[in-house]
Amino acid sequence: MSDDPTPAEGSNPDPRADAGDTDSKDLTHTTDEGDVQMVDVGDKPDSERRAVAAGEIRLQASTVEAIRDDQIGKGDVLATARVGAVQAVKHTWETIPMCHQIPITNVDTDFELGEDRVELEVAVETTGKTGCEMEALEGVTTGLNVVWDMVKAVEKDDNGQYPETGIENVRVLEKEKRRK
């Protein structure tokens, strides 16, 4: 459970935006002139933070079976996707323009194979001044993209298209903040 109070109606629930008291009309990532800026979190206290995100990639049942049996020609799909997910978490600040570079203290990945899909859950932990939900989301989307890359040869139809393949249902499942 989060220690964050429930946001008041009209307030911004984004923990990256709580650098100071803001009115709902204030856009924390823009200056008064409308220029984009990074939010100043320098005066915020450090907190232990955790975020969990999840998503899935829909595949042909035969592809999931090949992943399960380690029969994909490029190699171990889930091991490769795990590395990609962790790398993405660590580099989120490089791909999302207004994200702060934060110290990642832990990343957990959990894959589940369904009949026609691979589900991925990524949990990220940090101790710092801003949350880590964007890092968890980046881990999920990149991990699922790696799965797609690893299986694309067997997912393509005769025309080189991917009619049954799709990344879906990417979302933040939870986020926590505990004061130190």
UniProtKB/TrEMBL annotation:
Catalytic reaction equation(s): (8S)-3',8-cyclo-7,8-dihydroguanosine 5'-triphosphate = cyclic pyranopterin phosphate + diphosphate
Taxonomy, superkingdom: Archaea
Pathway: Cofactor biosynthesis; molybdopterin biosynthesis
SUPFAM superfamilies: Molybdenum cofactor biosynthesis protein C, MoaC
Binding site for substrate: M98, C99, H100, M134, E135
Location of the Molybdopterin cofactor biosynthesis C (MoaC) domain: 38-177
Residues annotated as catalytic: D149
Swiss-Prot/TrEMBL keywords: Lyase, Molybdenum cofactor biosynthesis
Record flagged with keyword Transmembrane helix: no
Top-tier EC class: lyase
Matching NCBIfam families: moaC, PRK12343.1
Similarity annotation: Belongs to the MoaC family.
Name recorded for this polypeptide: Probable cyclic pyranopterin monophosphate synthase
Organism in which the protein naturally occurs: Halopiger xanaduensis (strain DSM 18323 / JCM 14033 / SH-6)
Taxonomic classification: Archaea, Methanobacteriati, Methanobacteriota, Stenosarchaea group, Halobacteria
